[in-house]
Amino acid sequence: MRALIKTxxxxxxxxxxxxxxxxxxxxxxxTRAAPLTGLALPLMLLCGAAYLAKH
Amino acid sequence: MxxxxxxxxxxxxxxxxxxxxxxxxxxLSIGWRRALNAALAAxxxxxxxxxxxxxxxxxxxxxxxxxxxxxVFLILFGLRWFAKxxxxxxxxxxxxxxxxxxxxxRAMPEINxxxxxxxxxxxxxLLEGLEVxxxxxxxxxxxxxxxxxxxxxxxxxxVVILAGFLVRKPLAxxxxxxxxxxxxxxxxxxxxxxxxxxxxxxWPFADAALFALFAFNILGGLTLTALFKKRLA
Lengths: 55, 233
What we know:
The structure holds two protein chains of two kinds.
Chain A: H1 2-9, H2 12-29, H3 37-54
Helix pairs in contact in A: 2-3
Chain B: H1 2-30, H2 32-58, H3 63-90, H4 98-107, H5 114-143, H6 146-167, H7 176-198, H8 209-232
Helix pairs in contact in B: 1-2, 1-4, 1-5, 1-6, 1-7, 2-5, 3-5, 3-7, 3-8, 5-6, 7-8
């Protein structure tokens, strides 16, 4: 069961990094900058990956 | 469809190579018959999980909810592989070495005990296969190509079995990190696309945006790898 959960969400750091990226994308989607959400999420995920790779 | 098949085949290839190392290490202790028996039992469990997961997801009537769930899980999975591949590519983390993995397994005292070795092979194949299961179910259900995705995973299994039969030692020359990096870029592209689409975002150029996302991830990942490498030097 633990292995299944780890496969689905990874560790805590991975989970929270992805959650923050998606949350920021949702916020951008509800502002006037909404058309840029398609750029914001991949950019946030790239920053998240840089953080995870370093730590 | 081709993207789904390629992502599933490549993900499965990497995972089956790792599973093969475990089965090989166990087979040298308890024999091929019992080791393959354990591997087949694990694959049977994975097949049941795939059927159950697909049935569960197809029961979700709301397309947006299904798309969001699948998208988020793909982001979680893709981000993990993406970050690991960057760290390994840049030298921040050591590369996965099948020969070392094999040596460590062979050095385990439990591997000489018939029951414990069977459990090692079973758990190993099951754990490696869970990532294949996630990709088959997530990509398959969302694109209505579950059988094709499962077939791609099985094809990868056959390729690894054939290679293993010919080589009869760990498949250490498979460029695991490059494959994981490429797959992660694709999985992240699918995850990003479906997550935002489920939230009401209209992608410019519709499905073609997937290629742009894939290219963005490849370029971004390679840039990060180069930057980290430069810092380490």
